[in-house]
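Notes taken during the Thursday session

The instructor put the following on the board and asked us to keep it in front of us for the whole hour. The protein is Beta-lactamase. We were told not to look anything up and to reason only from what is written here. First, the residues (322 in total):
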Amino acid sequence: MIPTQMISNRLVRAALLFTAIAAIVGETRSRAAGEDARATPSAPTLTSRLEPLIRAHKGKVAIAVKNLKTGEEFHHRGAEVQPTASLIKFPVMVEAYRQAAEGKVDLDARITLRAEDKVPGSGILTDHFSAGDQIALKDAIRLMIMSSDNTATNLVLDAIGIGATAATMESMGYPNTKIHSKVFRRDTSVFPERSKAYGLGSTTADEMVRLLEALHAHRLASPSACDRMIEHLRTCDDRDKFPKGLPYGTKVAFKTGSVDEARTAAGLIDCPDGTVALCVLTCENQDRRWVPDNAGNVLCADVARAVFAHFSQPGAAPSAAR
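Then, after some discussion, the predicted structure tokens were revealed:
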């Protein structure tokens, strides 16, 4: 018979040996896990991609992003009212199509261009069309979006009313989205104080993204009208903002705006992981050069590139920063 004391000593030694082995195994597993973590870092989040771009820009920035398939979002100063420049022509198009659906305007109606209608800036009507020429309202809308034609915009505003866009946007839940006057015609302003503060138009990044989401979901007008508006946005010829940051052939339906101290862009980008609504607003920019690599243009392109990259990676890390 084995003495009780001997059995006790053996049990103690076995327990100590088991503890030592467990410690060694645990340390080995911990070391391996650490090595794996270093070898395969977690995917960057949308926040980690965008915040360095925002910090580096010398000016005020507001950004809103939403993946319309997954619901993933990013917001930076999304509710802050900022100038739109010509980006406000997108809501003007929405109002024109809504009025057409209600029978208030006829998209095929011919508009006669008068000499006094011509204003400077972007577009082709002022320099390449003669007083007395006629175009259809739908063609004026197309020029307003495609080449951001200022004269065409004013013709559209004559047809639908300057204050109509703001009234409709407010009734639909976009109270900060307003065009204030005709382009280069501050004397026509229906919101004089906002004209002084923001220029041609005003909005927030959040409202622009929600408006784009509603357009994508065919909630702004009939499905066919929404599809036509998206097609108009796909003709936008500003290649210095979103398109410059995207792979060749990426489908993007967007509108932009540019004035001395502000650069803006908003649109729908087809990414591998779903259609994304994106808005970038900049103002009070230090770089006021009228060159393709203006810092505001570059920021718009860089944000679009970062967003596309994020929604191209498998298992994108979620982000809901505000």
